[in-house]
C-alpha cells in the first residue's frame, strides 16, 4: 500500500469520527433544547436563589439582597415558578 493510500484512509477515518462526534453533539444539543422548551412545573419544598457575595459579617451583598427580596416577594404571592415572574 502506498503512503498516499494509507494517509487517505487515515484522513477518512478521522473525518468520519469527527463527523460522528459532531452529529452526536448536535443531537444532544437539540434534545436539551427541546427538553428546556417543555414546561412541566411541579410544586417544590425549596427554591434556589443564585447570588454572589455574603460578607464576612454574614450580610448579603446588594445584588444578593435584591435577589433574596425578589424571591421572598414571589413566595409571598404564591408564585415564582414561571419564567418572567
The helix-strand sequence is HH
- Oligomeric state, counting identical vs distinct chains: single chain
Q: Write down the domain tally.
A: 2
Strand content: under 5%
Could you give the count of β-strands?
0
Low-pLDDT parts are: none
Q: Averaged pLDDT, please?
A: 85
Helix share bin: 55-70%
The largest sheet is:
none
Describe the model.
- It is a single chain.
- With 85 residues, the chain is mainly α.
- The chain folds into two domains: 1-40; 44-79, no CATH class.
- 60% of the residues lie in helices and 0% in strands.
- It contains two helices and no strands.
- The model has no long low-confidence stretch (mean pLDDT 85).
Topology:
Blueprint: H1 3-37, H2 62-77
Defining key terms:
2 helices; single chain; 2 domains; mainly alpha; about 80 residues
Summary of the model, kept short:
The protein is mostly helical and 85 residues long.
